[in-house]
Amino acid sequence: MSFVQERTCCPQCGNQAEFEADCWGSQRTTCLICGYYEQESLKFDAEGNCCGSRRDIGKGFGVLGYRYIDDNFFWNHFLKTPGESHDAERWLRSALRSGAVDVDTAYVTRWSDELNQVEVLVGDP
Fold first, then answer.
1. pLDDT tier at 110 (50, 70, 90 boundaries)?
2. Model pTM?
3. Which of 20, 41, 42, 61 sits in a 20 to 30 Å window from 4, CA-based?
């Protein structure tokens, strides 16, 4: 399967976002700063015929990003509610104190509706 990846501008916060499209007609935009996501995919009927598309758009409430010390993978958790940013901040501060995550990759952000911008709670995205 072929696909395209490129950087694009996030429609919510204006920071750099990831765009992916594949040869099956699906595309996705995700922002690792504010958590905005947009996904479009084709719909098929029971016989496998294309019968339209589906588009989901989600407001970003923030992101928890980190890499465990003994791991090569970067983890990004998209926050689904404004309240999750406090739990994510508490978890990340605890993980940093214990030395479980890499300080250079760890961050928590949240979206501020009042300021219409991203606030960085921990680290540097």
1. very high
2. 0.85
3. 61
